[in-house]
Structure formats: structure tokens, C-alpha cells
């Protein structure tokens, strides 16, 4: 592979990159009309059959990075240990080939990106990244599969000549199967799994990462509830069932007929299955069995893994060790050792044993590992940090150096990912997968403007032409839309919302076209009216309620068909209502016969029909029908009771109380009020539906995304706040630093800030500091003393002056004098106090200084003065 | 306060007065829009106002069984009475009367508001059953007693109390005493009680209240114990083995037996009695245990029976209801078509409807008959099984009673032997000083002592017989009553009710086409 070759290959696989512009447009379309997102032309790359090329005709080129000087030294040179290990390996290789002449070469020391041969074990760099998502093997495998673009091996039946460091693979977003496996293995060992890279052979589909024959992993689980009615145990006094008088012959004939139909159906199903299997069978592969592939093996023991399994790094799926897709294993390795498979792989991996300590089946490279394998990885269980790992290795080698050469530490730098890189997990933040009759597009959160993160398109055919169903998942949307399913065939849309919308909508199913029918499911607990579901068709509107205090279960309104001539302009008008039915649950506090079950407001017929609840002992519910009085609409006339108003009454039991005329009259007045109320409710419900439609349209247009307050990267307000806090923190810190004045600084400065001093200088420094402190204290005390004396002097002069002029002074002057005296007294008092305090504190302060000087590291051995930090 | 009786003629609670009182509660002008009922429906009245009427006696109120609110203030009532049937009453106002004692409120368990303001009551008492009492006004009375206040401690739901105008309320520490002793009330004399004075008051009376609480706790404990005991006894009674858990039967045998007690003074009788008692009590105790166990099995059997019967009934009712609902659906559809043509019911439809009705009737009846058959069979089985259980019980008990009788015979024999020996020794003059005077006569000669033994034995035997008879007659009574009730309710009454309901339904539905 030359440089250009590599680019081409990269380009041909990076379908997404080219499609980028198209899909942006497509998203815009989608916002306007979710119908039109059907015609997309992203098709899976057709796996070309690779021609078989003799290796010596075109020697496989070696990919070397453009500027190796950008890489750290361990990438560019081999240490002595590494050189040693390479010689050791060469020795191993020669012996191996001498003994097993017909075995294929092993993958031992490929070139790295700087063109240097490196031992594969040292290329594994166990790392645990600081994302909890990568702690489980399936999440980690999915991340690796999502993060990289796959490159095919060239030629497919030979081991690659190079193996890049996982670091480069991670940053370049591309790699072949060995790169995939190596990276994943680094993550898994870091997370504490007992994971190994496997070099072996697999089918063409696996090698090409051709998933178009696999079932869609995102397929919706269509649950079918099987509620089996448990027959109550036969009790002693269970009554005998009445005699069964139906003909057994008839039943037998009927059963025979059913059986025949079932058999027919089964046969047809079988034929259909066969036909499908025929279509899905892969084409014959001329290179079957010699296509080189690499994947990951996880052994049991660590992290509660019950048994050994494979992980296909290109797709991220876990596979059983007897999977038919894997055809053979040459060797496995981790960061510590290398094992060569000695078992027969003619039956694929089915019968392989994975006890690596079994020397008959696995030829190891380093003997020490056999005893050490368990011990080292055990510590990884909890931390997986390589610092600890290194320590462990040191310990291990200390015991075994005399026996053998150990594997040097990995030459690869520690893997690292920023949170942003982790979140944009796909190359270019998006990736497309193809499965059987399904296309899956994944996007990083916040990457698309409308918040889409996953789009699953299901097709009816294998060529991705006939779209059936599109599922789109969203995240961080302002309108809380979580998922939208569009059934292309019936042209209906089902949207699922997260809790938190102002109208508490949970699910919204609607169709297009004239026979519109929509169902809305609400978070009923969050709604004050307990509305759980609303169903609307052309002529019906039904609201279902849950947990209401008045036990209302549903309210159903029947409408008259709208006359066609009104035209669309009148569409906002309320539809005329034929009748409204309310159904209530049983209120156990009332008698069943007084508890209304169903209330029909037959608005068109001017009737009320009440059906009460049925008792446990009765077979019929009581009913009562009222007719609205003729003049019910006229508010000015008081309605009088007449016996005609009660059309009919049926009481299930003659013992039931008859209602008095007065009660009946009031009941009817109440019913009339209720009718108004209920009509208003129905109209409100209709308005709400229309509101919802409008609001949804607006929300679709605005499609803002929400940022969590903890997401300081994206949430502007949060960031500002955070910055403010940081700033304040820094300021505080600075202030604190200023307070901590270095008392030795002036003396050190006096002797020219030396970096080292001797004991004598230290002693001088100490005494001068003490001396300085004493002097300062005395000066301060003297100053205060002087002021005090000054003040006293002044006061005395004032007093003398007063005594002289006492006679013939005005009242004001006298007052003035007294005020001045008081002030002076006060000042004297303060000065006295301060002096006192100073005297007391000086002794304490002196002691403090002394202890500080005693503890000061600069005045002790080895007398080093640290550089001042600026 | 004092009224002049002579000046006012006491009124009697009459039919007219009640009628007026009920009607005056209605809205104005209502009588014009709704025709007056011919008869007053007493049970439909919820609240009644009989104030300012100079009523002397509370009477003729028993018909208002659903009354929740009764105002009889400003009358001249002297005794609270006639309220026993008004069990739903929650609000009772008897203020401004001449009542001297609180009484006659025992059945008003739902009462929450009670006003006895301005009466002549001296003691707060006789209100133990008013557990839900929330507001209690006893102002302007003659209460002058700390115990009356303490009495109010038992009402956990009490929140408002009015006590002012009583002699007690004029005492200096009235307020602190009351709020300390009634921690559950929030308002005293219609004023909210603040936290601070309450805490102070509680501190002041801390010791007294602590003592009070201790005695209350003890009382409660005692009540609980006696309750438990009663329940236990009831349970034993239902198992027909009451008073058999200890030596009650044995002591009862000797209780009415004055001769026998004297005989027990014979030397060696003590040991004998102790020995016999032990055996006796052991047997009685096995009977007791057996009785309890039998009751358990019987109860389980009865439960099983009822569960199954109710299941069968519910299932049957449900199926019938489904049939009825289906028919109603069919009926609406049938007539909906007709109505469109605005011609009334056509004869073809009427005929079809008639057929459908007959069909419905047949179906419902068939279901009912099937149920009757099922129940009959089940009840018979149940009756047989229960009868067997009872006879098992009886037989086993009888055998045990036999054992008791044998024991008694053995006892008698031994005592006779002892007595004879004693008489002989007495004759010889060896026992002179061991007997009190009156018993000495008994041992004077052999015949007397044998007679005494005979009598004693008879008394003992009759006691045992009595207990046995009682047990057997009660259990057989219990069995017949229960079985009879089951036959009556489940077979006869239920069936009758259902048949009536079906025919009512059919008649009602047939009315649709009968107009033609």
C-alpha cells in the first residue's frame, strides 16, 4: 500500500465524509416535512471480490508516517530491552518455523508508524479512560466500533506488515482489524478484563465488516403480552359445571379443519423461510479459510466473566467461541505474553480450548507468564492503572530475571481522550451502518441542529430501495421529543416525548390524509385533570382519565359529520355534537344503585340517559331517562316539574328507594348544568388538540437544543458563572498569598538572594531577624509613649489656661472646654490601652517568630533557599 | 337563665311541627315548581331545625334515621333523650335549654359537633362513646370540677372546647390547667392556643400530668386485657369448650357439694384429690384442645364453602349481566333503525323483538336454574360434611366424658374406702382431735358416711352430665341454625329475588312494544 493507495482506500470507505453536505440538506428537508426524508441514496459499499495477487509480484508497501520527528522517542527508537526482545523473538520465530514448517508466519514484530519493528505485546497499552461508559466490555467495544473507520487488509490473506500504536489509531479514526483489536484490547485490559488480541482467520463477511446480512440490532421489541389465566385450584365446594351438551363430533371435525389450515400455513411459512435463506446465503468465497482477521478474546475469571467469548472489534458484538464465522486461530497475545495455538482448526474454532496454561495446546513465548498471569491481572481488576501495573511487573521480573527475559513496558504513550472527543464518538461525528434491510445512521449529540442522534431506516428489500419504517431518536431537544417513528406504508407518525412538557404529552400518534385519526397519551400523574389518553377520529373524540376523585373513566363525544360545503375556511368551527357519554368507575362509598356508571347527554335528542352501577347480586343495572323540558334554553322561565320529564325508570330491585319528585327535579336541573359544563369541556379538548398541532409545528421550526447546567462547554450561562467562580477563587488565592509575607525576604535580599547558605549565615540571618523584630517593637512602643506624653502635656496646658480664665467665661466657652477635656481624656485612655496591649503582644509575637525561625526549612540542613515563584 | 315555666306552655313535638320544620328548610318558591309530596319521607331528611319553640321533651324523632344535623336550641328541654335511633347524627345543638345531666348520647358515635351551651350541667360525663367529637361547647354551665376537664382527655379528635361562663373558668389557674391537661385541643373558648403558654403550662403541671398519663396507661392496659379475655372466652364459647382450659370444671364439681367438702377432711383425701385433679384436668385439657382444633377445621370448611358459593354466584351473575347487556345493545340498534323512519315500531320489528325477549327470558331462566341445581348440590355436600364433623366432635367428647365419669367413680370408691377406714379408726378413738365438731357427727357411724359419699358422688355426676348436655345441645343447635339459614337465604330467597328481577326486566322491556 503506497501513500496514495492508502488515501484512496480511506476515501472509498469514508462514505460519510462525502455525504456530509447532502445530509445537511436532507435534515433541512426533514424539518419541513417528515414525509420527504424517504428518498436518500446512502447505500452500503458493495464488497468487491479481491483478486488474488501473488505476494512477490507487488511487495506490500509499508506505510510510514510523514514526519516521524513529531513522535516521541519511544516511537522512533528501540531501547536495549526492546532490541533484546526482538532478538529473542527472532530466535523464537526461527525455531518455530523449523519445527512447524507448514505453519503460516506469526504476527510478531510488525513495523510501527515510524517504520520500526515493535513486538506486538508492547503495542498493547492497558489504559482505563476516565469515562464510566468504557468500563463495561460491550460499551467499550461499541465505542471502538463507532470511533473508527474500517480499512481492509491488503491483500486479505496476508498479515499486515504494520501495526500502528493504539494512540495513532484513536486519533486518526481509522484502522484495520489488527488496529481495532489492539485498541479494544488496551481498553479492556485497562478495565480489568482478561483480554487478548487474536490473530486468525474469518469469513469474508467478518473481514469485510459486511453486516448487511445481520438482523438489525435496534429492532423494536414488539412485546406480546401473554397473560395466562391461572385456573384457580379446584376447591372442595366448587360447583359442578353445567352439563356440556355440544356435539363432540362437531368439535372434532372443527379441530381437524383447523389443524389442516395450520399445517398449510406451516408449510407455506417453511417455504418462505427457505426462500429467504436462499436469498440471504452469501456468495461462495474463493479465499474461504485464508482471510486473515484479528479480534479479541476475553477469558473468564476477571470481572465476573463466566466463560470465554470473542468480541468482534469491527462491530462491537460479543460472539461465542464456537461462532462459525471464525475459522481458525494462529496466535493470541496480551501485554505480557504471546501464545501460539497448537490445536487443530480444521473445524473452525468450535473445539478449541482456551486454557492458556495448557502447554500441549498453547505454545507460550515467555515461561514466567504461566505462573504470573493470574497475579498481575488481578490488580487490574480494581484500578487498571498502568502505574500500578508497572510496579507489579517490576515485582514479577525481580523474581524471574534470572530465568528469562521479560517483556519491556509498552512503547506506546498513554491513551487519552478529551470529553469532547469522547462525545463526538464517530469519525466526523457521524457514522452509517448497514444491516439486513436496515440502515442505521448515528450522530454525536449536539452535532445535528435538530438533536437527532440515531436514525434507523427499515426497508422491505435487500437493496435499500423500498422504505418501510423510519425511527429517529433525539436528544437534548427543547420540546422533549425523544423518538419519532414514521410508518411509511400507513403514513402514520408516532412521537414519544420525555416528561417535562408543559402539556405533559407522552406519546402522539397521528396520520396524514383525509381520514385523520390521532392518539395522544399523556403523563397522567402530572396532569391535574388526570387525562391519560385522548383519541380523536373524524366523528369521535374520547378522553380517557385515570385516578380521578370523581371516578370519571372516559368521556366520549360523537360529532355530526361536517357538511362538505363549508370548505376549509370554516374548519375552526366547532363540530356539532350529537351526544356525549361519560363513564364512571365504581365509588365504593355509595350504594351501587345510587352510583352512576354511565351518563349519556344526548344533546341532539334532548335526553339524558343515566345508567347506574350493577350490584353484585343483580343482573341488571338501574336506568333512568330524562327528557329536557321544552323551554330549557330560556333562562327567564323557571322550569316546572311535570311527570312527562321523566321518561322511564327501571329499578333492578323493587326494594330500591324511589326518588321523590323533588329530588328528581333537582337532579334534572343539575344534569342540565352538567351538560353545559361537559359541552364546554369537549370544546376545550378540541381546542387543545388544535393548539397542540400548532405548537408542534412551531417547535419543529424552532428546534432549539437544551444544554444542561452542568455542561459548561455548551451552556453559556453556566460557563459564565463558572468563569466567575474561577476568577473569584483565583483572587482569593492571590490575596491569601499576599498576606503570607516572607519575614526572611529582606535579609536574604540583603545578602544577594543566595540559593544556598551555610550554617553560619543561617545563624546570622536568625539573629538579625530577631534583632530587627525587637527594634521594631521598641520603636513602636516609643512612638506610642511619645504620643501619650504629648497628649498629657496638652491637657495640662489646657487646664492651666482654664484656671486662669475661669472667671468671666461664657457658658458656651465652658461647655466647649469640658468637651475638649473629655476628648483628650478619651484619647489618653485609648493610647494607654494600646500601649498596654502592645507590651503584652510583643512577648507573644517574639515567641512566635522564634518558633517560626526554628522550624523554617531554609535555616536548617541543607540550607537550600527555594526559588521564589512569581 | 331561669325560665318561668308557668308563663310558657310547653310544646309537644307533633307531626305538624316536624312537617313544617322539614318544609321550611326548602328553598323559597320551590313548592310552586315541584308538586308537594303526599307523605313526608322521614328517612330522606338530613337536617332538622326545631329551635325557639319551648319544647320540653325530646320525642318523636326516631323516624329520622338519616338525620345528620339536629338543632334544638332555645327550648326548655330538661333531659337529653330519644336520640338513640339517630345514629348518623354528626351535629347536635342543645344550647340554651335546661339540661342538668349529660346522658342519652351513647349511640351517637358519629357525633363531631356538640353544643350544650347555657344549660345547667355540673359534670362532664357519659360521653365515652363519642370518639369522633371535634367541637364541644359547654360554656355557661355549672361545671366546677377538675375531673370534668380531665374527662375530656379521652377525646383524641377534640380540637375546640368552650368552657367559659362556668364556675371553674373563673378560677385563676383555669387557663393554664386546661391547656396543660388537654394537649389535643387547638382552640379554647374560640381562641387559638399559642405554643409558648402551652409549654409553660405543661411545665407547671408536669408531675400531675405524668401521673395522669401513667394511670391512663394502666387503665388502658387493663381494658385491653379484659377485652382480650372476653374475646378469648368468646372464641372458646364458639368452640363449645368454654371454661375448660383450666380446672374450672373440677372446682365446679365441689363447689355446690357441702357434704363432699366435709368428706375431704378425711385423712389421706388431700393426696387423693390432688392426684385425681391432675388426671381430671389433663383429660379436660385434651378436650379443650380438641375442641379448638375442631373449631378451626369447621371454620375452614365454612370458609371454603362460602368462597365457592360466592364464586359460583358471581360467575353466574356476571354471565347473566353480559346477556342482558348484549340484549340492550341489540335493542338500541333495532329501535335506532325504526326511529329514522318516524313511524313508530313496525309490526315486523315488534314481532322480532318479542321473539328476542322470549329468548332472553329463557336464557336467563336457564342460567338461574343451572345455578339453583349447582347450589343445591353443593349445599347438600356441605351439610353432610359438617354434620359428620359435628358427630365426630360429639362422639369424641362423649368418650372423654366417659373417662371423666370413670375417674369420678374411682374417686368415689377411694373416698369411701378412706372414709370407712376413718370411721373404724374413729370408733377405736384414734382420731378424736383431728376433726372439727360438726364433721365428727358424720363419722359417727358407717351408714351416714356412706350416704354422704353417695350424695357427693351424685352431685359430681350431675355436674358432668350437665356440662355434657349443654355442649351437645349447643353444637347441634348451632348446626341446624346455620344449615337452615343457608337453605333459606341461598336457596329460597336468592332464587326468588332473581326470578322477580328477571320478570321485572322482561316487563320493562316488553313495555317498548306494548304501546302499540
UniProtKB/TrEMBL annotation, chain A:
* Region spans: Disordered: 1-45
* GO-annotated biological processes: cell differentiation; flagellated sperm motility; spermatogenesis
Residue limits of the Dynein regulatory complex subunit 7 C-terminal domain? Answer: 756-861
Entries under Pfam families matching the protein: CEPT76_peptidase (PF24656), DRC7_C (PF24671), MORN_DRC7 (PF24667), Transglut_core (PF01841)
Q: Which residues form a coiled coil?
A: 668-741, 778-841
**Residue span, CEP76/DRC7 peptidase-like domain:** 292-365
Chain intervals with Basic and acidic residues compositional bias: 7-21
Which stretches make up the Dynein regulatory complex subunit 7 MORN domain? 427-708
The record's section on SUPFAM superfamilies has: Cysteine proteinases
- Sequence ranges assigned to domain Transglutaminase-like in this UniProt record: 141-204
The alphabetized UniProt keywords are:
Cell projection, Cilium, Coiled coil, Cytoplasm, Cytoskeleton, Differentiation, Flagellum, Spermatogenesis
The compartments listed are: Cytoplasm, Cytoskeleton, Flagellum axoneme
The entry's cellular-component GO terms read: motile cilium
What InterPro entries does the annotation carry? CEPT76/DRC7_peptidase-like_dom (IPR056290), DRC7/lobo (IPR033551), DRC7_C (IPR056292), MORN_DRC7 (IPR056291), Papain-like_cys_pep_sf (IPR038765), Transglutaminase-like (IPR002931)
Family to which the UniProt record says this protein belongs: Belongs to the DRC7 family.
Name the UniProt record assigns to this protein: Dynein regulatory complex subunit 7
Q: Which organism is it from?
A: Adineta steineri
From TrEMBL, chain B:
**Highest taxon of source:** Eukaryota
Tell me which InterPro entries the record gives: Cilia_flagella_integrity (IPR050576), Leu-rich_rpt (IPR001611), LRR_dom_sf (IPR032675)
Keyword flag Coiled coil: yes
This protein's UniProt keywords: Cell projection, Cilium, Coiled coil, Cytoplasm, Cytoskeleton, Flagellum, Leucine-rich repeat, Repeat
Record localization:
Cytoplasm, Cytoskeleton, Flagellum axoneme
Annotated coiled-coil segments of the chain: 350-392
Q: What GO CC annotations are associated with the protein?
A: cilium
Regarding protein family, the annotation reads: Belongs to the DRC3 family.
Q: Which named protein is this?
A: Dynein regulatory complex subunit 3
| Lineage, highest ranks first | Eukaryota, Metazoa, Spiralia, Gnathifera, Rotifera
